[in-house]
Structures are given as C-alpha cells and as structure tokens.
Amino acid sequence: MTNWFSxxxxxxxEQAIAxxxxxxxxxxxxxxxxxxxxxxxxxxAQLLRRWDExxxxxxxxxxxxPIQLAAGLAVAALVFLWALPSLTxxxxxxxxxxxALA
Amino acid sequence: MxxxxxxxxxxxxxxxxxxxWIYVYRATGNAAxxxxxxxxAFVRMLRADVGGLGEEELRRYVFRVAGNLMADRWRRSxxxxxxxxxxxxxxxxxxxxxxxALNMTRTxxxxxxxxxxxxxxxxxxxxxHEEIAGALGLKRGSVKVLLSRARARLRDLLKPPSRAARRxxxxxx
Lengths: 102, 173
Description:
CATH topology of chain B: Butyryl-CoA Dehydrogenase, subunit A, domain 3
Largest interface: A-B, 37 and 46 residues
Radius of gyration of chain B: 18 Å
Order of helices and strands of chain B: HHHHHHHHH
Largest sheet of chain B: none
Shape of chain B: globular
Number of strands of chain A: 0
Radius of gyration of chain A: 39 Å
Strand content of chain B: under 5%
Strand content of chain A: under 5%
CATH superfamily of chain B: PhyR, sigma-like (SL) domain
Helix content of chain B: over 70%
Number of domains of chain B: 1
Number of helices of chain A: 2
Order of helices and strands of chain A: HH
Oligomer: heterodimer
Shape of chain A: rod-shaped
Structural class of chain A: mainly alpha
C-alpha cells in the first residue's frame, strides 16, 4: 500500500499548503464582482425587514381567521338547534292555517 | 439593529464586500453565484438583529451566512462543480504571473467546493474550528476530519506532476 491514502500532513506539507493558500489569497480575482451598491443592499434589507414586521403583525389575524369562522358556524348551529322546536312549531301552525284555508 | 446606521453599514460593506465575494468565488468557482450569495449574505445580516455586534463579529457573521448559503446550494444541487470562470477570464494573457495564477486556480478548483471553503476559512480568514463549523453548518468534530482530508487532497495536488501521474497510472491499472 502506498501513502496515497494517507491523510497525515507533515510539517513540510503544512508549510507548502499555507504558502499556496497565502499566494492564492493574494491573487487578483479573475472575475469582477458585480455587486449592488451599498444603498441598494441597505434599502432592500429595510424593505424586507418592514415586510417581515408587517407579516408578524398580521400573523395573529391570519391565525384567528379560521378560528373566527369556526366559532361563527358553531354559534349559528347552536342558535339553530335552540330555535328548532319554535321553528317546527311555527311551521306546523302555518301548515295548519294553509290547510284550514284550503 | 439599533446601532448599525446606513453610514456604518456603508463603511463595512465597502471594506468587506470584496473579501466575502472572493471567499464565495473561490469556494463556488462561479462569479454569478458569488455575486448572488455575497449580496444575499449582507441583506440577511441587515435583516437580522446584529446591532450589538462589533466590526469583527459582523464580518464573521457575514462569512457565516455566506457559508450557510453555499452549503444550502450544495445540499440542493448535490453536484459539486469546479470553477469554469477563471479559465475564460485568464485565457487571453499568457504572461508568467497569469499562467501561475491559472495553475493555482486550477489546482484549487480541483478540490470540492466544501473543501475549498474549509481551506479558505482556515488559512485565509484564520478562523477556528468552531467558527468554521458555524460558517458551514457543520459539527465541530466534522470540521477537524474534513479539514484534514482537504489538506491531504491539496497536498496531493501540490505534489510534482510526475509523481501525481505515476499515481494516476497506478490507480488506473
């Protein structure tokens, strides 16, 4: 077996690697960065922060919406059940009157 | 972000944007990705609550965000590609310095992006294992192992070509 798979780095190797990395870091960049200006970055971040804040402010409303809907439906069902005997009674009376008239 | 004013950010951006860009560029090997990731890192820094941090901490913070953004891309793509941009931009000039630069870039580009990022943070940014772990979303123990592997790979790439060729032919047999 050769030392091909050896991951041990000797002090000499370490020196060579450090020197290589230092030379690489000192190289001029082969491509030119196309970065936005500082104010563009700043205002983009401000805008996104504002959106984040808005979203956080509106979040309870968004969470409450289905709860409100469910509560409304439940109350409507309860009212309906509570009024059902009276409704049935009233409907019976109406039917009786209709029949009497006929 | 109580204390980071637009002017303070401007100074910080002018001073450090290029260093962040070069780090991302050397790790990804792609100028367009470096543009995107470097800018996004600064935007995320501003969106976060970094008011109490000093200059050096802010710098580390941006490097960490950039590293995490790169790691996200690597995880998403699952494909680690080498640099192609340098080849195009340096190909025109054949002076000694540029040929050396091209060779160094090719050598570094032969490493995997994460290995490049690890080596860059360790040797150029002189970050600790803990800081590197934070910067690349790794565990501290993994950094030691991965960095050791990256060093070994770079050492092999830096060996004279004849030896490397012998190894290559030996492996091919």
